[in-house]
Every structure is written in structure tokens, then in C-alpha cells.
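Q: Hi! Curious about what Pyrroline-5-carboxylate reductase looks like structurally. Here's the sequence.
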Amino acid sequence: MDTNGSVGVVGVGEIASAIVEGRCAGANPPAFFLSPRGAANAAALARRFPSVRVCGSNQEVVDRADTVLLSVRYEHREAVLAGLDVRPEKTVVSALAGVGIAELRRLLRTDATLVRAIPLPAVRARASVTVVHPAHPAAAALFDPLGGTLAIPDEASFAVYSALTATVSTHLGYLGSLTEWAVAQGVPAEDAARYVRSMFRNVGLALGDESRSLDRLAADHETPGGNNEQVRTAWLDEENRLALHRVLDERLDRLR
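A: Let's find out. The predicted structure is below.
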């Protein structure tokens, strides 16, 4: 266990659990102090990993950790955060969507360093870049081993990345729609799902080639006038692109 740079977690839900699992399954995990909020998840993590401890209260988490990760639901922010006493020497990393640094400081009433972050579930596999604002060594130490850190210079740009995360379930829903169509044509549901999963899992590997732009990758997966190009241009036409952008604009307005 690395006792330097200990991390306290207030709110042990899915994302926080993924962070703890990702770090503890890798090399040199920090000491983790987990809040009793999300008790079942916290207890399960403590049983699995020797570097994890469950504390008796949120305040104990804050007191024992060097870096405090906030991962509570938006609607619970007032009730959970307002009562915490965070000393100025602490670093607070917030994974609360839609809660800016000014509001965090109002809720916590602290002079501690505040950093926002957008961790995604793939941090569990140490395979996801985490957006942070502003850049800070404590945030880099927490997230670099989980797939890397992308530091954003201002909160307006940070909100754009936050809006992009709202598209993940849409992508998965798209794959579900493909499967539904195949089933409607008489293909067994299990076979259709297996094939769609395999096809897009392997297509996703191409995203690791950052020497090619996303437009280039799309072009490399189609031939002029072929089936892929015909479906793309018919379905993802200008009207549908604008509809998608309008929805993202609405998300962005709420996040800023």
C-alpha cells in the first residue's frame, strides 16, 4: 500500500467504485478511505483490496485523506457537502456533473484547492482518459494510471466535454436498434446481438490509431457508393446532424 497521496471517497457509487477498482488492481495503489454512503459497495471494495478502508462518516473520510473525491448525486449535493469541514491544505476532486467550482466553494465553504473531473466507467479497466479542470498534480496522480488525464483550461470548455458524455447510452441504443432490426428480419435475437457486439467491438479497436482522424476512420470503413456509405449518408444526413447538435446544445446550456 502506498500511504502517500491517500484518497478519500465521499459517495461510493458506480463511478467511484470503478476508480477504486482500477487503481487497486494496478501497481502502487494509494490508501483509499471510503465513506459509508454507498455502504454495500464500500464494504465489498474493502473486502477485495487491502488498501481500502471504510470510515464511519463522511467527515472522517475528509480528515484522513490528502485528496478528497466527491462522487455524490447532484440532488444530494446540498445535504452531503454543506456539513463537511475541509481544511485548506486538502485537494478536492469533484465528479459532480453540473456543479461548478464557484458552487462547490459555496457549498463546502473552504479555501482548499478544487478540481472538477469527468471519470467514465472504463477507468475500471484503466482504459479511459479523464477530463479535469484545472490541471493539478493530485488529479493527475489519481487518474493518469487509469488511462490518462486531459486538463482543460476553463469551465466553459469543460462543460463541452461533460455534454459529450451524454451520448454514451445513445451509442449503445443505436447498437440495440441494429439488433432489433435484424430480429425483425427473422434472425435469432441471441445471434444478432452476438454479431453486432463483435462487429463494433472490433471496429472500436481502430479508435486507438490516433494518427487517423475520425472522418478518415469512417472513410476507411467504406467504399465509394458502397453499403456503408449509402447507410451513413441516408441516415446521418444534415437534418439528423443538426438535430443531434441541438440536443447537445441543450445539454450544454444546462451544464454551464
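A: A fun detail: The longest helix spans residues 238-255.
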